[in-house]
Protein backbone atom coordinates (compact mmCIF):
# COMPACT_ATOMS: atom_id res chain seq x y z
CA UNK A 1 0.00 0.00 0.00
CA UNK A 2 2.84 2.41 0.83
CA UNK A 3 4.51 1.62 -2.48
CA UNK A 4 1.34 2.34 -4.43
CA UNK A 5 0.81 5.58 -2.52
CA UNK A 6 4.36 6.67 -3.25
CA UNK A 7 3.86 6.12 -6.98
CA UNK A 8 0.70 8.18 -6.94
CA UNK A 9 2.66 11.11 -5.52
CA UNK A 10 5.23 11.10 -8.32
CA UNK A 11 6.75 14.60 -8.81
CA UNK A 12 5.60 14.67 -12.45
CA UNK A 13 2.00 13.76 -11.64
CA UNK A 14 0.94 17.38 -11.16
CA UNK A 15 2.57 18.41 -14.42
CA UNK A 16 0.85 15.59 -16.32
CA UNK A 17 -2.55 16.51 -14.88
CA UNK A 18 -2.01 20.19 -15.78
CA UNK A 19 -0.93 19.25 -19.32
CA UNK A 20 -4.00 17.07 -19.79
CA UNK A 21 -6.23 19.89 -18.53
CA UNK A 22 -4.74 22.35 -21.02
CA UNK A 23 -5.18 19.90 -23.88
CA UNK A 24 -8.83 19.29 -22.97
CA UNK A 25 -9.52 23.04 -22.53
CA UNK A 26 -7.86 23.86 -25.86
CA UNK A 27 -9.84 21.19 -27.65
CA UNK A 28 -13.13 22.39 -26.19
CA UNK A 29 -12.35 26.01 -27.13
CA UNK A 30 -11.54 25.01 -30.71
CA UNK A 31 -14.80 23.10 -30.94
CA UNK A 32 -17.14 25.65 -29.38
CA UNK A 33 -15.46 29.05 -29.92
CA UNK A 34 -17.32 31.46 -32.26
CA UNK A 35 -16.07 31.21 -35.82
CA UNK A 36 -14.93 34.39 -37.62
CA UNK A 37 -16.72 35.47 -40.76
CA UNK A 38 -14.84 34.31 -43.84
CA UNK A 39 -15.12 34.98 -47.54
CA UNK A 40 -14.13 32.97 -50.60
CA UNK A 41 -10.43 32.49 -51.17
CA UNK A 42 -8.91 34.65 -53.89
CA UNK A 43 -7.28 33.21 -56.97
CA UNK A 44 -3.63 33.66 -57.90
CA UNK A 45 -4.73 35.87 -60.81
CA UNK A 46 -6.60 38.23 -58.46
CA UNK A 47 -3.59 38.42 -56.14
CA UNK A 48 -1.23 39.29 -58.98
CA UNK A 49 -3.64 41.88 -60.39
CA UNK A 50 -3.97 43.38 -56.91
CA UNK A 51 -0.20 43.52 -56.56
CA UNK A 52 0.11 45.50 -59.80
CA UNK A 53 -2.59 47.94 -58.64
CA UNK A 54 -0.86 48.25 -55.28
CA UNK A 55 2.53 49.05 -56.84
CA UNK A 56 0.98 51.79 -58.97
CA UNK A 57 -1.36 53.44 -56.49
CA UNK A 58 -0.28 52.51 -52.95
CA UNK A 59 3.43 51.69 -52.77
CA UNK A 60 4.55 55.32 -52.71
CA UNK A 61 3.21 55.57 -49.15
CA UNK A 62 2.99 51.97 -47.94
CA UNK A 63 6.19 50.61 -49.52
CA UNK A 64 6.69 48.17 -52.38
CA UNK A 65 6.10 45.20 -50.07
CA UNK A 66 3.41 46.92 -47.97
CA UNK A 67 5.87 47.21 -45.10
CA UNK A 68 5.27 50.94 -44.66
CA UNK A 69 7.62 53.89 -45.19
CA UNK A 70 9.16 55.70 -42.24
CA UNK A 71 10.23 59.32 -42.23
CA UNK A 72 13.48 60.69 -40.83
CA UNK A 73 11.59 61.82 -37.70
CA UNK A 74 10.36 58.28 -36.95
CA UNK A 75 6.94 59.02 -38.39
CA UNK A 76 5.55 57.31 -41.46
CA UNK A 77 4.09 58.22 -44.79
CA UNK A 78 1.91 55.11 -44.65
CA UNK A 79 1.73 52.34 -42.03
CA UNK A 80 2.49 48.71 -42.74
CA UNK A 81 -0.38 46.74 -44.23
CA UNK A 82 1.03 43.32 -43.43
CA UNK A 83 -1.57 41.53 -41.33
CA UNK A 84 -4.39 44.09 -41.64
CA UNK A 85 -6.41 41.65 -43.74
CA UNK A 86 -8.71 42.04 -46.72
CA UNK A 87 -11.46 43.66 -44.61
CA UNK A 88 -9.32 46.69 -43.75
CA UNK A 89 -8.39 47.29 -47.39
CA UNK A 90 -11.97 46.80 -48.58
CA UNK A 91 -13.19 49.33 -46.02
CA UNK A 92 -10.56 52.00 -46.66
CA UNK A 93 -10.57 51.71 -50.47
CA UNK A 94 -14.27 50.89 -50.82
CA UNK A 95 -15.32 54.02 -48.92
CA UNK A 96 -12.88 56.23 -50.83
CA UNK A 97 -10.76 57.03 -47.78
CA UNK A 98 -7.78 55.57 -49.57
CA UNK A 99 -5.89 56.65 -51.58
CA UNK A 100 -5.59 59.61 -49.24
CA UNK A 101 -6.19 62.91 -51.03
CA UNK A 102 -4.59 65.18 -48.41
CA UNK A 103 -2.79 64.49 -45.16
CA UNK A 104 -4.81 65.40 -42.10
CA UNK A 105 -5.96 64.13 -38.73
CA UNK A 106 -8.52 61.85 -40.38
CA UNK A 107 -9.27 60.40 -43.80
CA UNK A 108 -12.73 61.54 -44.94
CA UNK A 109 -15.19 59.38 -46.81
CA UNK A 110 -15.47 60.19 -50.53
CA UNK A 111 -16.27 58.57 -53.86
CA UNK A 112 -14.05 55.49 -54.43
CA UNK A 113 -11.13 55.78 -56.85
CA UNK A 114 -11.17 52.04 -57.63
CA UNK A 115 -13.92 49.85 -59.03
CA UNK A 116 -15.43 47.04 -56.95
CA UNK A 117 -13.33 44.46 -58.83
CA UNK A 118 -10.11 46.43 -58.37
CA UNK A 119 -10.85 46.87 -54.66
CA UNK A 120 -11.36 43.12 -54.35
CA UNK A 121 -8.06 42.45 -56.11
CA UNK A 122 -6.05 44.82 -53.92
CA UNK A 123 -7.72 43.29 -50.84
CA UNK A 124 -6.75 39.83 -52.05
CA UNK A 125 -3.12 40.86 -52.46
CA UNK A 126 -2.87 42.33 -48.96
CA UNK A 127 -4.63 39.28 -47.50
CA UNK A 128 -2.02 37.03 -49.15
CA UNK A 129 0.83 38.71 -47.21
CA UNK A 130 -0.32 37.63 -43.73
CA UNK A 131 -3.48 36.45 -41.96
CA UNK A 132 -6.02 39.13 -41.05
CA UNK A 133 -9.75 39.86 -40.89
CA UNK A 134 -11.57 38.70 -44.02
CA UNK A 135 -14.33 40.44 -45.95
CA UNK A 136 -17.57 39.24 -44.31
CA UNK A 137 -19.83 36.78 -46.07
CA UNK A 138 -23.21 37.93 -47.36
CA UNK A 139 -25.09 35.87 -44.76
CA UNK A 140 -23.84 38.21 -42.02
CA UNK A 141 -24.89 41.34 -43.93
CA UNK A 142 -28.52 40.45 -44.63
CA UNK A 143 -30.52 42.09 -41.85
CA UNK A 144 -34.01 41.33 -43.16
CA UNK A 145 -34.32 38.16 -41.09
CA UNK A 146 -33.18 39.65 -37.77
CA UNK A 147 -35.80 39.07 -35.08
CA UNK A 148 -37.12 41.59 -32.57
CA UNK A 149 -34.91 39.99 -29.94
CA UNK A 150 -31.89 40.42 -32.20
CA UNK A 151 -32.75 44.08 -32.77
CA UNK A 152 -32.99 44.62 -29.03
CA UNK A 153 -29.63 42.97 -28.50
CA UNK A 154 -28.02 45.05 -31.26
CA UNK A 155 -29.53 48.23 -29.80
CA UNK A 156 -28.21 47.44 -26.35
CA UNK A 157 -24.70 46.95 -27.67
CA UNK A 158 -24.85 50.10 -29.83
CA UNK A 159 -26.08 52.30 -27.00
CA UNK A 160 -23.43 50.92 -24.65
CA UNK A 161 -20.38 51.01 -26.94
CA UNK A 162 -21.05 53.34 -29.88
CA UNK A 163 -23.24 56.30 -28.93
CA UNK A 164 -20.44 58.13 -27.09
CA UNK A 165 -18.85 58.84 -30.49
CA UNK A 166 -21.44 58.13 -33.18
CA UNK A 167 -24.46 59.67 -31.40
CA UNK A 168 -27.61 57.81 -30.37
CA UNK A 169 -28.92 57.73 -33.94
CA UNK A 170 -25.57 57.26 -35.69
CA UNK A 171 -25.35 60.88 -36.84
CA UNK A 172 -21.67 61.15 -35.85
CA UNK A 173 -19.90 63.63 -33.61
CA UNK A 174 -16.71 65.58 -32.90
CA UNK A 175 -13.64 64.06 -31.22
CA UNK A 176 -10.39 65.61 -29.89
CA UNK A 177 -7.44 66.70 -32.08
CA UNK A 178 -9.55 67.52 -35.13
CA UNK A 179 -10.97 64.03 -35.50
CA UNK A 180 -14.59 62.97 -35.64
CA UNK A 181 -16.84 59.94 -35.63
CA UNK A 182 -18.41 59.84 -39.10
CA UNK A 183 -22.12 59.52 -39.68
CA UNK A 184 -23.45 56.01 -40.25
CA UNK A 185 -26.32 57.19 -42.42
CA UNK A 186 -26.15 55.65 -45.87
CA UNK A 187 -23.11 53.49 -45.01
CA UNK A 188 -23.18 50.02 -46.55
CA UNK A 189 -23.71 47.12 -44.12
CA UNK A 190 -20.46 45.53 -45.26
CA UNK A 191 -18.45 48.63 -44.41
CA UNK A 192 -20.06 48.91 -40.96
CA UNK A 193 -19.12 45.29 -40.29
CA UNK A 194 -15.55 45.85 -41.53
CA UNK A 195 -15.17 48.96 -39.38
CA UNK A 196 -16.14 46.97 -36.29
CA UNK A 197 -13.74 44.19 -37.22
CA UNK A 198 -10.70 46.30 -38.13
CA UNK A 199 -11.08 49.44 -36.00
CA UNK A 200 -10.08 52.15 -38.50
CA UNK A 201 -8.25 55.17 -37.07
CA UNK A 202 -9.50 55.93 -33.54
CA UNK A 203 -12.27 53.31 -33.51
CA UNK A 204 -11.76 50.28 -31.20
CA UNK A 205 -11.57 46.76 -32.65
CA UNK A 206 -14.47 44.37 -32.07
CA UNK A 207 -13.05 41.10 -33.37
CA UNK A 208 -15.30 38.19 -34.30
CA UNK A 209 -13.96 36.26 -31.33
CA UNK A 210 -15.22 39.04 -29.03
CA UNK A 211 -18.47 39.90 -30.79
CA UNK A 212 -19.72 37.13 -33.05
CA UNK A 213 -20.72 37.76 -36.67
CA UNK A 214 -24.36 37.20 -35.69
CA UNK A 215 -24.11 39.88 -33.01
CA UNK A 216 -22.52 42.30 -35.49
CA UNK A 217 -25.43 41.65 -37.83
CA UNK A 218 -27.82 42.57 -35.01
CA UNK A 219 -25.98 45.86 -34.47
CA UNK A 220 -26.16 46.68 -38.18
CA UNK A 221 -29.87 45.80 -38.22
CA UNK A 222 -30.48 48.19 -35.31
CA UNK A 223 -28.59 51.01 -37.05
CA UNK A 224 -30.60 50.55 -40.23
CA UNK A 225 -33.83 50.36 -38.22
CA UNK A 226 -33.38 53.65 -36.36
CA UNK A 227 -32.36 55.40 -39.56
CA UNK A 228 -35.50 54.25 -41.36
CA UNK A 229 -37.88 55.48 -38.66
CA UNK A 230 -39.83 58.70 -39.34
CA UNK A 231 -39.23 61.87 -37.33
CA UNK A 232 -42.34 61.84 -35.17
CA UNK A 233 -41.46 65.16 -33.55
CA UNK A 234 -41.08 67.00 -36.84
CA UNK A 235 -37.74 68.52 -37.87
CA UNK A 236 -34.95 66.54 -36.19
CA UNK A 237 -32.19 69.15 -36.59
CA UNK A 238 -29.78 66.50 -37.84
CA UNK A 239 -30.19 64.27 -34.80
CA UNK A 240 -27.02 65.62 -33.19
CA UNK A 241 -28.43 65.89 -29.68
CA UNK A 242 -29.61 68.53 -27.19
CA UNK A 243 -26.78 71.02 -27.80
CA UNK A 244 -27.63 71.37 -31.48
CA UNK A 245 -31.35 71.40 -30.68
CA UNK A 246 -30.83 74.21 -28.14
CA UNK A 247 -28.73 76.23 -30.58
CA UNK A 248 -31.40 75.78 -33.24
CA UNK A 249 -34.08 76.97 -30.81
CA UNK A 250 -32.15 80.09 -29.77
CA UNK A 251 -30.94 81.14 -33.21
CA UNK A 252 -34.05 80.31 -35.24
CA UNK A 253 -36.81 80.43 -32.63
CA UNK A 254 -35.78 83.28 -30.30
CA UNK A 255 -34.04 85.13 -33.13
CA UNK A 256 -37.20 84.98 -35.21
CA UNK A 257 -39.30 86.32 -32.34
CA UNK A 258 -36.88 89.20 -31.72
CA UNK A 259 -36.88 90.06 -35.42
CA UNK A 260 -40.68 89.98 -35.53
CA UNK A 261 -40.87 92.25 -32.45
CA UNK A 262 -38.53 94.75 -34.13
CA UNK A 263 -40.65 94.68 -37.27
CA UNK A 264 -43.81 95.37 -35.26
CA UNK A 265 -42.11 98.29 -33.51
CA UNK A 266 -40.97 99.76 -36.82
CA UNK A 267 -44.32 99.43 -38.60
CA UNK A 268 -46.77 99.95 -35.77
CA UNK A 269 -48.97 103.00 -35.23
CA UNK A 270 -47.16 106.04 -33.81
CA UNK A 271 -48.80 108.51 -31.44
CA UNK A 272 -47.94 112.15 -32.07
CA UNK A 273 -48.17 114.72 -29.30
Structural write-up:
The chain is extended, with a radius of gyration of 28 Å. It is 51% helix and 3% strand. The strands form two sheets. Strands 1-2 form a two-stranded antiparallel sheet. Strands 3-4 form a two-stranded antiparallel ribbon. It has helices spanning 2-8, 13-32, 44-57, 59-62, 85-94, 116-129, 148-161, 163-166, 189-198, 213-228, 242-267; strands spanning 69-70, 76-78, 173-174, 180-181. The protein is mainly alpha-helical and 273 residues long.
Radius of gyration using CA atoms only: 28 Å
Instruction: Enumerate the spans where pLDDT stays under 50 for 5 or more consecutive residues.
Output: none
Backbone structural class: mainly alpha
What is the averaged pLDDT score? 83
End-to-end distance, in Å? 128 Å
Strand content: under 5%
> What is the total tally of β strands?
4
Main β-sheet, in a few words?
A: 2 strands, antiparallel
State the helix count.
Answer: 11
If strands are numbered along the chain, what order do they take across the biggest sheet? Answer: 1-2
How do the SSEs run, as a string of H and E?
HHHHEEHHHHEEHHH
Helix content: 40-55%
Based on CA inertia axes, which overall geometry fits? Answer: extended
Amino acid sequence: MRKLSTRRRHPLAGFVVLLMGLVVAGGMYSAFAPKPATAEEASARDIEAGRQLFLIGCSSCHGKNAEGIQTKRDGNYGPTLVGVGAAAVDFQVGTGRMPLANSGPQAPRKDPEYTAEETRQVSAYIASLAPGPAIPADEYLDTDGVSAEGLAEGGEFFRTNCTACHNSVGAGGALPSGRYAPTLKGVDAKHIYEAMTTGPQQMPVFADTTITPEEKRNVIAYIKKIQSQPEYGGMAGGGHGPVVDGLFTWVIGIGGLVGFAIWIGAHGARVKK
